[in-house]
Amino acid sequence: MFFGKLKKCLLLIILLGVNLNCFAQDKVLQASNFISPKDPDVSLGLYNLFKKAKEGNFTKIVFEKGVYHVYDEHAFEQFMFISNHDSGRRKIAFPILNFDSLEIDGAGSQFIIHGLVIPITVENSKNIIIKNLFFDHFRATHSELKVKAIDKKNHTIDFEIDAEYPYEIRNGELIFLKRGFEHSLEREIYFDPNTNAVAFQSRKMLPLDKKKNSISTNLDLSDSLYPIDKNSPIYKKRGSYTNLTAEQLNPGLVRISGVNENLPEIGWVLVVKGENGNNRLAPGVRLLNSSDILIDNVTVHHASGMGLIAEGCTNVSLNAFNVEPKQGSSRILSTTADATHFIGCRGKIKIENCSFKNQLDDATNIHGTYMEIVDVYSSLNKIGAKLGHFQQIGYDFARTGDTIALVNPKISAKHVFYLTIKKVEKINPQYFLFTFNEVLSDNISAGLYIENIEAYPEVEIRNCKILNNRARGFLISSPRKVTIENNVFSCMMAAILCPNEFTFWYESGYVKDLTIMNNVFLDNTYGNAKPTPVIGIYAVSKGGGYIHDHIIIKNNIFENYSSNILFAEHVRSLTFKDNKIKYSGTYPMYGDYPILSLKEVGESFVINNIIDNRFGDLLKVEPTTSKVIEKENTRF
What's this model's pTM, rounded to 2 decimal places? Predict the structure, then answer.
């Protein structure tokens, strides 16, 4: 027993980097006292299980291996603001709320979700281990339509729709019917079942319809004193309406008219999830304001949103956390958004031995958040600031004692000056008041952005597979040390992106110490209308200067249909060495792009790379790049 406890303690110390009191005897609660695989619905039993664990200070819950069904009707419910998701009342299967030290061993059990239920929620908890669990949905929350026929002259597509995706045609519009909600044909993309990936240059066929313009009267009267988020569902549809019409030819065979002039190939599968504001409803795992979490050998086969979303957490480790369709399933899609997403986290994030496949957004996105200053109360050393995107409303931006930086979004992501927070007042989910220890400068005005420089983690990502998904592989915007090693990428868009933007998601961050090494990049950016960089380092810096610091890209293999491998701008130091770059042969060659494009890079070292002779120029260097050392690169 002692050595078993020692092994557990060492595992947590290694994976989480924390000091836990692991030698106390576990107080074990058997889930079989509350639920059984024979139960038609275990949702109420799960509620009672976690209630008993909390009241009895149990430190471990063990499940009997089996298949369990969770229905929304009796599941625990609470209101949630979930970053990058749609807010509202949400049901929870595993409510892990306000726990200190809890291990959950699912013993390989499967939980089948019926309706909009979040499988796992961890809030205000610490020292949590969750392992050996599988989650799926009885019916998918998205829909998949197979292309059976196209008519180029009349701009129609005939779709075959499986019985898993119930639908109705309402006033000429195709509507998919789900348990507790419904969705339209919006937010769509084509997959190719021959590759099980996004179809080649699928974005040429999107959006599916040609929008018609609406007629508006006195629209200006709906405006308020403050700018509105025109991406929110309230405003998104204003100004246009769909041109699509649906006609049922036979049950399960529907003709859509009014489509884009660029038509898909017969056999492709159109994946749709519905309009913004109603398509990210229930992630697989939600972590909020918690610390020292290990998720080990957990698989999310499907979720209406992200596989995992972590907000304001410290020290999160994922080992063999997999987001992928169930083997043998007819579904081509796993989750309807990112596989994993981390916002405003601290400490260290470790993602190891994971598989992220066929999700409808990025494999991971790690970043902070900008808030916009809208009011300044200089005499009180106080400002009022608002969150910009409707799916970030409710996010807890900062804590007392945090240091924030101010930036001018019209000029650069560079920090203008710093302040420390004395008091945080959350007036409403979008608008906050911040009181500072320092006297406010006269230069602080409405329109500047604030960024919490404390809320960034160190990142290690190793031995993961990212395949066949829409959008990108890793979006990394953290100034702490970041290591991306021994992974395999094949994404519709960029494999790795280091962005910085002020206008849509308001995601803050940059990289200061990034190493990308020993990875394999297999055909990335193939779903775009034209090739884009496999690795993209971007920044806003209109006034010039460096935003990113030190980036090393070494010992990687790039097998790509396009020669467009790297774009980097506003980087102080960049090293690209010992990489092998060759044509994959999977898709038509686009070999006339420069392999590396550099813009305002302080110093760059391009050394000892092996390059396919069929690809074009190695380097395109803007005059703003100061120093380039290029040597010992060879062709084959």
Answer: 0.94
